[in-house]
Amino acid sequence: MPAEFTSETDMFEAAKNGDQAALAMLFNLHRAHLERMVRLRLDRRLQRRVDPADVVQETYLGIQRKFAKYASDAALPLRIWLRLEVGQTLIDVHRRHLGAKMRDAGQEISIHRGAYPSVASKTLAAQLLGRVSTASKAAMRAEIQSKVQDALNEMDPHDREVLVLRHFEELSNSEVASTLGITSSAACNRYVRAIKRLKNVFDQMPGGIEGVWS
Hints:
Layout: H1 8-16, H2 20-41, H3 52-71, H4 78-98, E1 108-111, E2 114-117, H5 121-129, H6 138-154, H7 157-167, H8 173-180, H9 184-202, H10 210-213
Antiparallel strand pairs: 1-2
Helix pairs in contact: 1-2, 2-3, 2-4, 3-4, 5-6, 6-9, 7-9, 8-9
C-alpha cells in the first residue's frame, strides 16, 4: 500500500474524489485477478492474437470515465463491478475479432446484470485434469477428459459457472452470489450440485475427487 494511503478504503475515497493516481493504484490491486479471468475466458482462436493485459488495460480506460458514477453509490463490491466491466470488454473483443465466427449461445453466459464469456467445457476439463497428478498417462487422461467434458456439458450453465468462479477465479461464495445476482445459499447449492456431478467421474480415478481439489 503506497505511503499516502493507509487502506484500500482511503484509496477508494481519493479516487472517488477525482484522484486519477489513486484510481490507477486501486485498479492495479485487482489487475492480476482480472488478467487471470481474461486468460481463462479468452476464445482459444484468439489466444495468440490477444494479450489479456491489453483487454484489461482497455477496460481501465473505460473505468476512468465510469468510476465516479459507480462510486457514487457502489451498489456492487468493487472487484465484482470490475469483473463485469472486463467481461463486457472481452465480449466486445470477441465480436471485433471473430464476428460471425463466434460460437453460438455457448459463447456467453447470461447473468443477472448482463453477460460475459463462458469457459468452454474443453478448456475447463483440461484445467481440472491439470490439477490431477495421477492422470499422467495420455490414454487415461484422454478418456477421463472426455468423461469430464460430458459431465460439464450436461450441467446447468450457471452451475458450471459457479464452479469456475469458485475454483479458478478464486471468488468467495458471497462474491459468486454478487456476480450472478443470486443469494449466497443459491450459490452454495449450485456449487454442491456441480461437485456432485463431477464426483461420479472423478471417483473412477485413483484418489477420487480429492486428487483434484487437494
